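tool=predict chain=A
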Amino acid sequence: MLRQWKTAVVVAVLAGSAYAQDIEKMTLTDMTLNPHPQFEDVSAAFLTGRFDQEGLYAANSVLGAGAVFPPHHHNDDRLSVVIEGTMYLGTGDTVNPANEQEFPAGSVALTPAGTVHYMVARSGDVRILEIGSGPSATDFSE
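tool=predict ok
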């Protein structure tokens, strides 16, 4: 009985190490980011998936100090995890501090599909991990 138990433990350990080889480790701060084609001081890189593809996507996005990502909406729910800095997330068709919530590092914002919103980096750089399900689109209000 003891021998069977030891064999089972060895098999489980070896199987676990085989799975570990499939895990890719990434460091958000070391990733090469691509500048947004329309907005100054906004850049991003995909960790997995793409907005225009079916399935899960995750994007490492950075808003430089003072950057504004203008009012827009998406056709999918977005989960935004603030990794560094403080994101100001507002709702509505115009940028208005009265309509904003403060999301410091460690905060999570769930923005439902169709919600017109914008993001501002008012107090320094902001790094956000954005997660959703594609295909997705960004439609600007302006």
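The chain is about 15% helix and 45% strand. Residues 74 and 122 are 23 Å apart (CA to CA).
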